[in-house]
Amino acid sequence: MGFFEDMQVGQRREIGAYTFTAESIVAFAQQFDPQPFHLDEEAGRQSLFGGLAASGWHIASACMRLLVLERQREAAAEAARGEDVAVWGPSPGFRDLRWIKPVLAGDTVTYANLVESVRPSDSRPEWGIVQARNTGTNQRGELVFSFLATAFVPRRPATE
Questions:
Q1: The predicted structure's pLDDT at residue 159
Q2: Of the residues 43, 66, 71, 87, which has the fewest C-beta atoms closer than 10 A?
Q3: Angstrom distances, CA of residue 58 to CA of 24, 30, 143
Q4: Contact between 142 and 122 (Cβ < 8 Å)
């Protein structure tokens, strides 16, 4: 799924899983989201979450890490096959970010990416614009996280 031409609406890929340990939840929260229900098991139990809850930003960061690692694996495989490697552009943003259910200590979230739209860029013909829904599902099969991302993806170079 390197170049714009390789992408089709409906393409889905699993990008990996992350287990949210109590230690990782607290470490992330101490640095980036120091709310009591992310820092202390008892405070989490007393909150509407019912346990030590991962920050939504931690959940999103784990997704981002897995997206980047998956793209790096794909690029390495493309290079090993002697193929051109697509270097993606920046993302102009995302929308519809949702933390649907709490992610508690011990939960494992499996992330996936589903292409929802593809279109050539009107202003930059060497790029396409891809929108994909990124989701996270816990070990019970419950959707816990979702957002719609937009990315600039390079068009395949013309062969001479």
A1: 67
A2: 87
A3: 9, 11, 16
A4: no
